C-alpha cells in the first residue's frame, strides 16, 4: 500500500466518523425521535381534557407505527395494566390531524391526567402513572 492510499483511507474514515457524529447530534437536538430514556424526555403540565374527549380515554399515546420508543411506551403501559388509547398518526388521518392541532413534532407523546410526556423515559412514565393512579383514588 502506498502512502497516498493510506492517507486517502484515513481521510475517508475521518469524514465518515464526522458525518455519523453530526447526524446523531442533529437527530438528538431536533428531538425527532425520543432518546430512549437518556434524559431527553420532557414533561409538560396542562389541561388536556380536550385530548381525552377526542380520543375517548384517560391515557392517550400518540405514536408512529415504526417508532421503537413508541413500541416501548406501549409495552410499558400494557405491563402496568393501564387502559389507554393509542393514536397512530401515520396510519390514521384523524389522529394525524389531532397531532397537528396539538403541535406534536416528535413521538411518543403520552397524555396522563394533567401531564404530557414528550419522548420516552421509562422512569418518568412510571412516575407519572403512579401519581395519576394515586390522585384518581378517592380520599379515605
Automatic annotation (TrEMBL):
Pfam families: Glutaredoxin. Residues 59-115 form the Glutaredoxin domain. InterPro entries: GLR_AS (IPR011767), Glutaredoxin (IPR002109), Grx-like_ET (IPR051548), Thioredoxin-like_sf (IPR036249). CDD domains: NrdH. Transmembrane segments: none annotated. PROSITE patterns: GLUTAREDOXIN_1, GLUTAREDOXIN_2. This is Glutaredoxin family protein.
Amino acid at each position: 500500500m502506498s502512502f497516498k492510499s493510506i492517507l486517502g483511507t484515513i481521510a475517508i474514515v475521518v469524514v465518515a466518523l464526522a458525518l455519523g457524529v453530526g447526524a446523531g447530534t442533529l437527530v438528538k437536538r431536533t428531538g425527532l425521535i425520543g432518546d430512549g430514556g437518556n434524559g431527553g424526555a420532557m414533561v409538560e403540565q396542562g389541561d388536556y381534557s380536550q385530548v381525552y374527549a377526542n380520543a375517548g380515554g384517560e391515557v392517550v399515546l400518540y405514536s408512529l407505527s415504526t417508532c421503537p420508543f413508541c413500541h416501548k411506551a406501549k409495552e410499558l403501559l400494557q405491563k402496568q395494566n393501564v387502559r389507554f388509547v393509542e393514536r397512530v398518526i401515520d396510519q390514521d388521518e384523524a389522529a394525524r390531524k389531532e397531532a397537528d392541532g396539538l403541535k406534536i413534532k416528535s413521538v411518543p407523546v403520552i397524555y396522563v391526567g394533567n401531564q404530557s410526556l414528550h419522548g420516552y423515559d421509562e422512569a418518568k412514565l412510571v412516575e407519572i402513572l403512579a401519581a395519576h393512579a394515586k390522585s384518581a383514588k378517592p380520599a379515605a
